[in-house]
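From the methods appendix. Each design record in this collection lists the tokenized structure first, followed by the designed amino acid sequence. Records were kept in a plain field format so they could be parsed without special tools. The example shown here is representative of the layout used throughout.

RECORD:
FOLD TOKENS (343 positions):
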């Protein structure tokens, strides 16, 4: 979801005298200001050190699944993957089309925890992981350790700005904007500058981090509207009290929901406590036959989007940055009410 204030700002832009941001050139002064300000805000909020480039790209996180090996691994080389759920598995499979991808750890098929240890190749071109597994609701509570010289690559799509992330411990961090930073179409990629042009490979220009860094992400037409909406979201974060406030809110939201799930015999979350997600929280009903009734009754209360991903079933609450406390409180009340009604 987007904050209501951001939606109002978009509506105002569309209905104003124009030309609107939807119409201006990506080479205009007006768009330059969007690009500069969004990068500056993101640098401050995420604590991105000077030695990192910040790119605003297209193709989703999925494009980065291919971009990672193409940019980091020389011909014939490989990369390590920690598979903790569906997205890190997809990243591994896609990387395998462009490099020798290796599974260093796999918590499947259930994906209820993060690995304590893994079989790291000290010569790997990178070690990739998903900080928060969106579908399985499994998150790394701390940055995984890497072998010196092996850049750590994080898919932060479903946790960016809602939980602390030590950028300086990573070589690359990427995140699709549509969950926490705005709308679909934009992917933010943060790359340590010494990793630009590392692989010596032929790379499609739109996936080439060095080429994109050299052109300020405007080698071709970027997703201007999605980029501008990300700026609106970042400005909203500033107004709310900054990145630390987003983290405080996310921590509070997840605590409320897990407390309700754990206190009940009717709902359950399958994930090991230390690896529980703060943003994407799956839960099951003791009686799975009542799932459809649950979803319908929830929708009648205005609680929508609770169906779990089709690959795992059950329910899932996505508590991204724009979710107010009231949204979680309403869900928690509904959980109790539905349980009582069925007792
Ligand atoms: C949603 C998601 C993706 C997929 O993003 P696309 O923008 O659809 O490519 C990848 N990784 C994670 C962790 C996600 O949550």
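DESIGN:
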């Amino acid at each position: 979801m987007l904050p209501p204030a951001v939606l109002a700002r978009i509506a105002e832009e569309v209905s104003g005298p124009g030309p609107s941001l939807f119409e201006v050139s990506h080479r205009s002064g007006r768009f330059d200001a969007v690009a500069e300000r969004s990068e500056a805000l993101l640098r401050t909020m995420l604590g991105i050190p000077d030695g990192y480039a910040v790119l605003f790209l297209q193709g989703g996180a999925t494009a980065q699944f291919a971009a990672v090996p193409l940019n980091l691994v020389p011909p014939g080389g490989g990369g390590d993957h920690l598979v903790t759920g569906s997205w890190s598995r997809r990243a591994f499979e896609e990387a395998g089309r462009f490099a020798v991808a290796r599974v260093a750890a796999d918590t499947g098929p259930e994906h209820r925890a993060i690995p304590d240890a893994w079989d790291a190749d000290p010569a790997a071109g990178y070690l990739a992981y998903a900080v928060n597994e969106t579908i399985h609701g499994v998150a790394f509570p701390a940055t995984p350790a890497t072998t010196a010289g092996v850049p750590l690559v994080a898919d932060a799509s479903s946790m960016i700005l809602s939980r602390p992330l030590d950028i300086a411990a990573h070589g690359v961090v990427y995140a699709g904007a549509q969950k926490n930073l705005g709308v679909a179409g934009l992917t933010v990629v943060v790359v340590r500058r010494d990793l630009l042009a590392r692989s010596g490979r032929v790379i499609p220009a739109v996936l080439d981090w060095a080429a994109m860094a050299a052109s300020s992400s405007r080698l071709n037409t970027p997703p201007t509207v999605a980029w501008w909406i990300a700026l609106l979201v970042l400005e909203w974060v500033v107004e709310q009290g900054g990145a630390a406030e987003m983290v405080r809110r996310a921590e509070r939201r997840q605590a409320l929901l897990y407390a309700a799930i754990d206190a009940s015999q009717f709902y359950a979350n399958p994930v090991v406590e230390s690896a529980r997600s703060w943003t994407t929280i799956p839960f099951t009903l003791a009686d799975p036959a009542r799932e459809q009734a649950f979803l319908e009754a929830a929708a009648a209360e205005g609680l929508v989007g609770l169906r779990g991903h089709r690959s795992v079933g059950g329910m899932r609450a996505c508590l991204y940055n724009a979710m107010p406390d009231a949204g979680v409180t309403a869900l928690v009340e509904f959980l109790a009410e539905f349980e009582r009604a069925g007792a």
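APPENDIX NOTE: Residues 60-62, 87, 130, 134, 155, 157-158, 176 surround pyridoxal-5'-phosphate (CB under 6 Å).
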